[in-house]
Amino acid sequence: MKAGDELPPLEIGITRTLIVAGALASRDYQDVHHDPELARRKGSPDIFMNILTTNGLVGRYLTDHFGPTAVLRKVAIRLGAPNYPGDTMVLKGRVEEFDGDTAVVRVTGDNGIGRHVTGTVTLTVAAAVTVPPGGAG
Known about the structure:
InterPro entries: HotDog_dom_sf (IPR029069), MaoC-like_dom (IPR002539). This protein has a domain at 6-14 and 49-124: Thiol Ester Dehydrase, Chain A. The chain is built from three helices and five strands. The protein has helices at residues 16-25, 36-41, 51-66, and strands at 6-13, 71-79, 88-99, 102-111, 114-124. It has a five-stranded antiparallel β-sheet, covered by helices on one side. A hairpin with a 2-residue loop joins strand 3 (88-99) and strand 4 (102-111).
């Protein structure tokens, strides 16, 4: 892995269940994340995903790529176009820096109406531990 490497994209279907479950899991009980009628009254065409769910999906994207030993050290994201039910978000990443066991990855996520998320994530990528044939000695 080196600076400039592109991560493979990840497509995530945006469902009502994902939006509501993410809001509940993060204890975000704002009506715009679970009640379509109240969301409409507030000017939104439907419920929409909260930032904590997006944050979790960005983390999942990176740990899926770098493996279960990767540790997220800093996640800095900014939201743009809302994620509404029935859309698809495509996450993409580009390694900005790679020094020793630390990577800095620029992440974007686009949906049908525009850029949903932009951010930078710093993570530690642990080297895989191998056990020699016959055990650890």
